[in-house]
Amino acid sequence: MADMDVALLITRWIHVVAAACLLGGSLFVAMAMIPGTRAALDETTRARLHELVRKRWVPIVHGSITFLVLTGGYSFFRLAFQAKIKPMPYHAIFSVKLLAAIAVFFIAVVMVGRGQGFHGMHARRRAWLTVAACLGAFIILASGMLAQVRARSGIDPVSPRDAATSADDGG
User: Fold this and answer.
1) pLDDT at 167
2) How far apart are CA 16 and CA 133, in angstroms?
């Protein structure tokens, strides 16, 4: 317990909660809300409900993305750079994970937006939210791969003692 890195623990917790909110909400809307409202409501009522839900969901989406970017950046700095992990394959896997995350962010922002430029995506909301959820599942897989690369590197960047020893011996 004495070797626990509280800052990294808290940022990881915030990161996971933000990801769960963003992806869980996407799955709920794609798999339950859209099909349920299509089956039970007329178009006018469905559009009104969508707008009411959208207004409440916007701050959650934007907040989740903000927390994911901030905590993800901090974690990458601590787990890759500060721990002096070898760039390959870590950076390659992380880059693919980051591109998938950017795609999820884009889809999420478009889905809560009202811009007419994305009318085609709005018309296929369920499909796009499913794509975002699948990308989210891939991101979780990539995160597991990164954890294994870190574990196999012999460096435990979570332990402050190991990070200090690594810094003291020059790498």
Assistant:
1) 40
2) 15
How far apart CA 26 and CA 125 sit, in angstroms, is 10
Instruction: Return the half-sphere exposure (C-beta side, CA atoms, 13 A cut-off) of residue 118.
Output: 15
Give the closest residue to 11 by CA, choosing from 61, 65, 63, 72: 72
Give the model's pLDDT for residue 170. 41
From CA 62, how far away is CA 105, in angstroms rounded? 9
Q: For residue 157, count CB atoms less than 10 angstroms from its CB and return exposed for 0-12, middle for 13-18, buried for 19 or more.
A: buried
Mind listing the pLDDT tens digit for each residue in 58-109?
A: 999 999 999 999 999 999 998 888 778 888 899 999 999 999 999 999 999 9
Output the 3-class SS for 18-58.
HHHHHHHHHHHHHHHHHHHHHHHCCHHHHHHHHHHHHHHHH
**Token pair for residue 49?**
């409900």
Single pTM value for the model: 0.86
